[in-house]
Amino acid sequence: MRSIPAELCVRCKGHKLLCGLLTCPLTERFRATINISARIRKFNNQFSVNGSTPPSVLVGEKFYPKINVMLNVPPEVYGDEARKYEDPIGWWGKASLNDIIRYRSSMLYLSNRVDVKDPWKLYEKEISPSAISHTPVSTEAKIEQSIIPTLRFDGVIYPRGPTVKANNVRITDDPKIDEVMEKVIFDDIKASTAIKELYSNGTAIYKIIQALSLGLLGERKNRKLVPTRWAITAVDTTISKSILNSIREYQEYDRISLFYSKYLGNKFFVILYPSKYQSTWIEIWHPMTPWSGDLAIVELKEDYFGKYEYMDGGYMAARLSILEHLNSMKRQAGVIIIREITSDYFAPVGNWHIRETVKNLSKMGDFENLEDTLRFVKNRLTANIDLMSLRSIKTVLGQRRIDSYFS
User: Fold this and answer.
1) What distances in angstroms separate CA 326 from CA 249, 269, 283, 300, one per listed residue?
2) Domain co-membership, 190 together with 273
3) By three-state DSSP, how is residue 353 classified?
4) How far apart (Å, rounded) are the C-alpha atoms in residues 273 and 252?
5) What is the pLDDT of residues 211-266, one digit of tens each?
6) Alpha helices, DSSP H only, in 127-248?
7) What domain range is 364 assigned to?
8) Structural domain ending residue among the three candidates 141, 171, 201
9) Torsion region of 330: left, alpha or beta (phi above 0 gives left; psi -120 to 50 gives alpha)
């Protein structure tokens, strides 16, 4: 979360809002946990949890290869009402940061330890089919421990609420799985082939991630559970690589265009310019934002062959949406992505919002040259940053000047 000094919280006690936020994330977290506790039934010294998973499953990486698989359920919430607790496409542009935190902290994470080599155990219990269902699925479970109010944040995966060890998790609805997903589950094909087949048939990327994570894709002899964090990057990378292979065959984009979108205190400026495919990623983190105490700038470059300087989950999410856009235009281009993270983004909620915000770009206009475009963007940043002084931007500007001798 945003780094708020402890002494400020002590002075505030959740009601003065000295940190500048509209509500206190600590009191919101405890309020949500109290609501969970009130909706759990007790019988014969055991607690019973009933509700519909949105669907939502998280596969952890800790203790690999014996890992925790968490089926996530908002107690006493059923049917379509449960869907909003994990709905990145439906959230975008509508749900606030506080809404998302409230949804995630209101779910109970029912945890079981599973060997990564035994994905079919979860399938037989219908936990895996529930996670890839296109409708919420009713669930019940027994727990023996009290609920500790926690809310864990992450830059790649969704926030996670209270986790409890669950006994006798039982699926009480029939999961609804579409025909294409059912086919690839029972096909004996490589995971990368299955991912591309699902994507080309319009399956939402979030369902593909769940299927890969739960060991439902790939050659049967090699199937394993895949931690959710790893599955997100694997799916983004696999689909992007496939699209990039097509894009390299297209003609170059013939103008310099600027696109823009914002959500959850994040601004995205995307510049397309005439070039063979290459990409530049710039993040500007304001003080008092997640991971940053001071103003920080991160830069990353990717070349024509798809080689990038280091792996970054946020960039991979944005890159996929950019490649989809280029593919729809049947063009390749040079790309500059500038992400500004303002202090309104006080808690990380996963990289889904990057993927969706870049997917929802609007065109701001065309420009004569890159210098004018960058000046235009600079004047619309909250931070006072000289974009043309950045290492990665200097490289792009230098390349265009060299190219001009041959045009």
Assistant:
1) 12, 16, 22, 20
2) no
3) helix
4) 9
5) 999 999 999 999 999 999 999 999 999 999 999 999 999 999 999 999 999 999 99
6) 127-131, 179-186, 191-200, 205-213, 228-247
7) 251-406
8) 171
9) left
